Amino acid sequence: MSAPPTFYIFHGDDSFSRDIALERMRTGLGEDGDLSRSEFDGGDTTVPEALAAVKSLPFLAEKRLVIVTGLIRQTGRMRGGKRAAERLIAELPNLPSYARLVLVEDPELAASNQVLKAAQKMKNGFIKEFRAPQNLARWIIDRAKSEYDVAIAPSAAQAIASVVDDDLRRADNELFKLAAYVDGERAIDEADVAALTPYLPEANVFEMVDALAKGDGKRALELIKQSLRDDPREAGFRLFGLIVRQFRLLAMTRDHLDRGGRPHAPAIAKAVGVPPFVAGRLAAQAGRFRAAELDAILKRLQQYDQDMKTGRIDARLALDLLATGLANV
To answer: Is pTM, for the whole model, over 0.90?
Structure first.
């Protein structure tokens, strides 16, 4: 049986999963673990200080845990950073068996990073890149099963994904509430999400645009009113901005397709700069509009925006005009 790692490098943009891993390491020290744990910001800590801390004998615990955020990158920026990096590389293989040095970097380190390349060859280290999920709805489905032992309908997972805007912590908070709500009796469905999750305007924008594409101004108005009830603080300004953003994305998607771009979600996601699950829905909606129609809609939105800023109309009236006007474009 191999010896446990004495140092760890956690890097990447999935801070949610990384923080879960860090918390498990903290709790693994036991009830008196706080006496044998130190946490530092790499901007305020030197390599010698971090090494001295992790080499100190643990007190009322079997391990000494030291978590340092940003130290590896700091060695690349600071004066004398090359020597600091070289010292860190030289010391990592020789840490005492009780040492648990965790070097945290956000986002991911470059493959060419000097410390990372050296650490990958060491037998006493553990390196993990925490990557944000490419498919948030899939992540929600998997986490519901693994963490809460509950099934969730794909449409419900997609509804949560539309609301939380790639924030894994928010997604997990919603899952926690929904799992408690169904209490293991059945799968979570979209009606549960609608009942328990604060439906911010993002969740309704896709459906609203669908209604406008079909000329269904009545349904668009219903969705606008629902969004204003759910998020009344912004008095319609935020919702208007989201609608503008949606039509800009549709125009970019339409342009991508008209230029011969591939209609698949990954290609659209790269071209437009959105997550793949959003790109799939953009592709479907863009197919309902011609480029000239989207151009006319964006010009009308620009006019409404100017009227709002000059006080000619308020945001709520602009939204009403938007729904009735765009449905006839």
So the answer is: no
